[in-house]
């Protein structure tokens, strides 16, 4: 049976990247559709996205009135993909070309036997490219910190390149998800684990953005740092509230 694949791309000031990432996704996964979730980018990303959608029926655009954080953008986009677009498989990835679209076929193959597939920098075959030492250390520390606090059997819990089965994602969103910044990546993986999901990691090489500036700030990193201990407290309530995902 043919399954509907929706790739969710949150954007804020990605005018220089959006066409390239959309074309790359459709080249490697031509059977997919793309939902661009734009938070009213002042650089015109939303208008470029509209032009792309007029050129290709596989592309849709969700315009949001303002920037509210990565987590809220993804949650809004996920709900549209699930409820309006009737997705069976949902891809979440950055729009800045840091996540390698050529890994999508492998990740989509892996979701056939799993509930969540994570593109991982920290398993054999994975890595990072064009990062300075400080960023490497912060990323490594964040991954270890999340794994230890939450007891996650995932090597890259802070990774944001994921493929979800729709049934699992519905359960995760119902919990609900509370993080608004990059803690969103950890929280959604942690909730999936608490619900008993089958999770697998696929090695990827994460490359720093080609153009534009990174949106990672010290404030975003600190937000994720203090939220993680509170996530642990929530785990024992998740199955009781939402039911174990099977």
**Number of domain modules:** 1
Query: What is Rg?
Result: 17 Å
How are strands sequenced across the largest beta sheet?
3-2-1-4-7-5-8
Question: Mean pLDDT, rounded to whole units?
Answer: 88
CATH homologous superfamily? Spore Coat Polysaccharide Biosynthesis Protein SpsA, Chain A
Shape: globular
Order of helices and strands: EHEHEHEHEEHEHHEEH
What is the CATH-assigned architecture? Alpha-Beta Complex
Give a summary of the structure in a few sentences.
Helix content is 43%, strand content 17%. With 246 residues, it is an alpha/beta fold. It has one domain: Spore Coat Polysaccharide Biosynthesis Protein SpsA, Chain A (Alpha-Beta Complex).
Describe the protein's architecture and organization:
The chain has 246 residues and is an alpha/beta fold. The chain has a single domain (5-242), classed as Spore Coat Polysaccharide Biosynthesis Protein SpsA, Chain A, CATH 3.90.550. The protein has helices at residues 18-28, 45-55, 70-84, 104-110, 133-150, 166-173, 183-194, 218-242; strands at 5-11, 33-38, 59-63, 89-92, 116-120, 127-129, 162-165, 199-203, 205-207. A 7-stranded mixed beta sheet has the order 3-2-1-4-7-5-8, sandwiched between helices. A two-stranded parallel ribbon has the order 6-9. β2, α2 (45-55) and β3 (59-63) form a beta-alpha-beta unit.
């Amino acid at each position: 049976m043919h399954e509907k694949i929706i790739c969710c791309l949150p954007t804020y000031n990605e005018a220089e990247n959006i066409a390239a990432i959309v074309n790359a996704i459709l080249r490697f996964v031509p059977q997919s559709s793309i939902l661009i979730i734009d938070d009213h980018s002042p650089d015109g990303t939303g208008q470029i996205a509209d032009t792309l959608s007029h050129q290709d029926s596989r592309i849709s655009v969700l315009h949001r009135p303002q920037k509210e954080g990565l987590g809220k953008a993804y949650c809004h986009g996920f709900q549209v993909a699930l409820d309006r677009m009737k997705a069976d498989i949902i891809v979440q990835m950055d729009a800045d070309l840091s996540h390698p679209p050529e890994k999508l076929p492998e990740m989509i193959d892996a979701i056939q036997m799993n509930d969540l597939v994570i593109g991982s920098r920290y398993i054999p075959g994975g890595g990072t490219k064009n990062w300075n030492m400080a960023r490497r250390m912060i990323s490594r520390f964040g991954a270890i910190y999340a794994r230890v606090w939450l007891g996650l059997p995932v090597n890259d819990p802070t990774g944001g390149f994921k493929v979800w089965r729709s049934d699992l994602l519905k359960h995760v969103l119902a919990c609900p998800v509370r993080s608004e910044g990059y803690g969103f990546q950890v929280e959604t993986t942690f909730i999936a684990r608490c619900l008993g999901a089958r999770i697998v990691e696929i090695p990827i090489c994460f490359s720093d953005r080609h153009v534009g500036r990174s949106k990672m700030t010290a404030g975003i990193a600190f937000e994720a740092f203090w939220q993680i201990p509170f996530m642990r407290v929530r785990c024992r309530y998740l199955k009781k509230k939402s039911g174990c995902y099977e």
